[in-house]
Write a structure and sequence with these properties.
GO molecular function: proton transmembrane transporter activity
Main location: mitochondrion
Number of helices: 1
Order of helices and strands: H
GO cellular component, one term: mitochondrial membrane
Distance between the termini: 81 Å
Number of strands: 0
Largest sheet: none
Membrane topology: Single-pass membrane protein
Keywords: ATP synthesis, CF(0), Hydrogen ion transport, Ion transport, Membrane, Mitochondrion, Signal, Transmembrane, Transmembrane helix, Transport
Mean pLDDT: 80
């Protein structure tokens, strides 16, 4: 069966992964995030309990 022969397809897959790892990944990792995480803590809101009329 020709689809079980990995001879030409393995080299194509290996070349595409090497292209991704060596060329594309450093370009993608050098991009800065549009919304960087902040270290500011959110203030906690003080909530008051509800006064129920039937208690």
């Amino acid at each position: 069966m020709p689809q079980l022969n990995p001879n030409p397809w393995f080299l194509i897959m290996l070349a595409s992964w090497l292209t991704f790892l060596l060329m594309m990944q450093p370009k993608l990792l050098s991009l800065t995030s549009t919304n960087p995480p902040s270290t500011k803590t959110n203030p906690t809101n003080k909530t008051t309990s509800w006064t129920w009329p039937w208690t």
